[in-house]
Amino acid sequence: VTIYPAKLTLPEGDKATFFCNISMENDTGSEYSLNWYKETNHSQAQKTAGISRYKPMTETGKYRLINHTPVFEIEILNLHQNDSGSYFCGLITFFKPDKVTESKRSQLIVTAAPQRNATDKQEMEEGNPPEHIKAMLLGILLLAGVVVLLIFGYLTLMYRRGGMIPLEAMQIQCETWEKPPVVSISTVDYGVLEFQSDQHTPVPSKTRLVEQTEYATIIFPEEKPVTPERSKKHLDEQTRQLP
């Protein structure tokens, strides 16, 4: 019984694979089985797994043995540092009672898993966010889309029923409210008209046949928009002129 490779060095979390080769001089088809043993610190060997000649594969939580007669493949899964030690194969033949043929020892060394530095970890997180974050973002986007559709449908329904002003009209009305119109008020300025009497010799009233009519042209100043300050000032001037 031979085993290879003679030595393996692997990090935690990896898988170790060994091969045991069986060579029998007189193979008459007799029954036999292959056991897998572990030694730690040269202590007594402990059986960890086993497989019979006609069984294609056996698997436990830690070991998997695959039959490729006359070669048997042994896998140690999900390595931890306490898996380090010496391993060997033991062939048990039933036509030779109490006869166990052992292979040489193969050494397995399990090292600590490599640690990522902070930069690599940050780049990994930024480049590939966790699945639950992706699902949460997708859910938020879908919820926001549903809310927008509901609001749009509600506004459309109210507008068709005539219970709401269209958005464009509301916008125009808001702009109108923001800028109140300037009111123009017509005003009248009062003045005193003085008529100059004729310098000629007055004609006796008996000889004046037709009364003369005097005409005057009144020019009003240009109208200006009345501001609250100017309106108040104008009212004060009228109050002073009235007495």
TrEMBL record:
Keyword annotations of the record: Membrane, Transmembrane, Transmembrane helix
BP GO annotations: negative regulation of immune response; positive regulation of T cell apoptotic process
A Pfam family per the record: V-set
Residue ranges of the TM segments: 135-157
Listed SUPFAM superfamilies: Immunoglobulin
Keyword Methyltransferase: no
Keyword flag Zinc: no
Alphabetical list of PROSITE patterns matching this protein: IG_LIKE (PS50835)
Cellular component, GO annotation: external side of plasma membrane
PANTHER family to which the protein is assigned, alphabetical: PROGRAMMED CELL DEATH PROTEIN 1
The name this protein goes by in its record: PDCD1 protein
The encoding gene: Pdcd1
